[in-house]
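Hello again,

I reread your note about wanting to compare the complex against the isolated chains. To keep things tidy I'm splitting this into two emails, and this first one only covers the full assembly. Below are the input lines as submitted, including protein chains and any nucleic acid or small-molecule components. They are followed by the predicted structure of everything together. The single-chain runs will come separately.
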Amino acid sequence: MLDELRELYQEVILDHGRNPRNHRRPEDANRHATGNNPICGDALIVHLTIDEDGTIRDAAFEGKGCAISIASASLMTDILRGKTEAEARALFENFHQMCTNDDFDIAAVADDAEALERLQVLSGVRAFPMRVKCATLAWHTMSAAMARKNDVTTE
Amino acid sequence: MNEASTAADRTLGDRAAGDNSTLAYDVERVRADFPILTREVFGHPLVYLDSAASAQKPRQVLDAMRDAYETHYSNVHRGVHRMSQLATDAFEGGREKVARFINAGSPDEIVFTRNATEALNLVADCFGRAFMKAGDEVIISTLEHHSNIVPWQLLRDRIGIVLRVAPIDDAGNFLLDDFEALIGPRTRLVAMTHVSNALGTIVPIKEVIARAHARGVAVLVDGSQAAPHMTIDVQDLDADFYAFTGHKVYGPTGIGVLYGKRERLNALPPYQGGGEMIASVTFEKSEFKDAPHRFEAGTPAIVEAIGLGAALDYVEGLGRETIAAHESGILAYATARLGQVPGLTIIGTAREKASIVSFTMACAHSHDIGTIVDRTGVALRTGHHCAQPLLQRLGLTATARASFGIYNTREEVDVLVEALGTVTEIFG
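Full-complex prediction:
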């Protein structure tokens, strides 16, 4: 029982949950979206600064939530910096597979193995299907921001 | 129907034997009536502390429903054949039991709905159409479940009513005088919960009704959380409408109740159109039956109504005073034990509470608490409990909630407290 919980709540998760990185609102951010988790009522706002060539120069977020959703947002915003929008979408696709598919194999993924290895601490949610939404909330929100959906910007 | 409230009979027998303390409540015998309580979750006995979301079902309810399907099932109020008559008798027998359960003046004052939500929507829709126009006001409270907020917002968007919200204090107490101050010349209806599902606060609903009536305003009560825990007497309360749902009072899903005073119900237009609710139909116009059938278009939840009747028999067999005593003992014990958990804050400390304890922990989000205790078999509700405006009022987005019913024990509270120790161990 405790093993699976320890697998879910690894030290990295607890650390990012307690001390989230990039928990701020960058002044030059040009894409924003709000993601709601209707089960718990938590909401995250993701801010992206995307250059004209499609590179994510900065990524940050605001909001409160459970350890899983905050750790995921924290790790995601760290990892996205420097990636293109296309790379971010591909990474989300692979991350989603990692969180839901027991047969997912990082070695079989050609791109971004390094990013996926960092995200692997979140793969413990596979044993907790009710928590997959917590782990992917920030990513769905990031995806919406890139697609200019749920745009909360006033500009 | 089934004369099967055996645990209830035995419990009452025990009490009659001379020990009139709450210990005479034989919770193990009650538990033996609930098949699901024998199962394990992740290798641990199920500790079900989520009855406020939906209660488990005693064998007597399951048997009554199976018996209905196996021996006297047909559509109701239709055929001249024997099965139709037996099914109709059983179905209407369910209605009579509901009427007795809340002391309605007549079974004709009992409308079957899908759940409490539909009962509340029915009143919003029909009362709104008949008696409200732009600028008219409806008073609800901060404690409401979304099901007693959203129907009024839909009505507001449709015809322009104004929604007023009666406040609470920081402990979750309902503020009677502040409520009364909201009643004005345009107030048409008060729609208010009897017991808060998120905090357990018992609203002084009789006094709410008295003060509303003193100003000529009708009152709709959402009794979803009250019906499982206390004696409901709609005539004593003088409620104009009273809604509750079957599945929270140990009955099946898919069946709810709207009580309305006869003259109140018959003053409303129909809710939905269809068979069963008409006196006569031509292609030019239709004549509608009186309540309750006016509001029951189409084939109703026949077997669910029978199951609800069996559930109410079961609860009445245990005795609602006895249940209230058992649950208030558990509530006091849980409040004391949880209050000793380091970093735990109980949310909602109203003077009058039903057996619901909402809480937060400094070290962990309620979702994480829920996941961790689940691995030791403890079922807690976590999140906003469909009462987001209430949690916003308290400066929160989520709590963990333990709710206690007729089958819960102090030992289960101990299991919860121990499981919360694991939360502290991981997050502390």
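For quick reference: The CA atoms of residues 119 and 258 of chain B lie 5 Å apart.

B.
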